[in-house]
Design brief:
With 318 residues, this protein is an alpha+beta fold. It contains ten helices and twelve strands. Aspartic acid (ASP) binds next to strand 8.
Amino acid sequence: MTQHMPVIISSENGRGGMLAAMHLLREGGSALDAVEIACRYVEDDPTDHSVGYGGLPNVLGDVELDASIMDGRTLSAGAVAAVMGYGRAIRLARQVMEQTPHVLLAARGAERLAAELGESPQDQRTDEALARWRERFTERSVDLDEQVPLRAIAAQLTQPLNLQDKLYKAGRVDTLGTVNFIARDQQGNLASAVSTSGIGWKYPGRVGDSPLIGAGNYCDNRYGAAGCTGMGELAIRVSTARSLVLYLKMGMSLLDAGLEALRDLQVLDARTGQYMNIVAMTPDGAHAGFTTVAGKQYLYMTGAMNAPQLAERTLLPG
Ligand code: ASP
């Protein structure tokens, strides 16, 4: 059987996970195991404030995790949303895929499955993340006041102070962050995984694109895979990940498929200043990154490389 060169790509914060995954791929491990291990590495890292343990809490101070995983061989997928009190959301997503007839379990149901499978409950809040959470209330002179609807408080805390803010316009938003990985193994199989604590200070129960198959994650061995990071509400509204893969199926090149997915996003209200990033891979291991804001990068590594490298994400011309 032909041996394929292993390849893995990720969002910018995936470096540590990528090295662990590449080690596995070089030993002949599957793309599915590789993307799970890669996400777990980032989930366990308390210094990453956008994923797993140490992730940014919602407006009430609770960390709610979203994750999904997809197997390009079979189109099997598993996901969890708004999970509290358990880390390793990606492992749980995989268990949903392998141990239940479902694709997505949310909140109580996902937590119940975790307990049933013997996962140990763990408070996902670190002192550092809680301090950051509190700081924003002070910075913006906001209190958790029962007289004010929670939706108004969450809206105030998740919004940038000023939409014209240069950092905000450049996509450096301190409420966001997610990790995603797409891998191809030596058998030529593709798999993709996404894990996040979602938007910091979000309304409780808010679910982003990351656990929604088709929005933030999609993988099909025949055509390719795509994953999103950025303001999940955008990718949900135009099914970004599945659309990009569908454009590949329709015969577009990887570049054209990515640009078409960006055009879909462009149709959404640009005044919100929200942004979206995409990573994508085709079955031959070719990869690309796309973004709606300038200056964004993604990471890639092949079996022939010693370390992950950064590459620029493509913007829509003009
Ligand atoms: N897409 C994630 C969400 O909306 C956040 C992010 O990628 O930064 O939950």
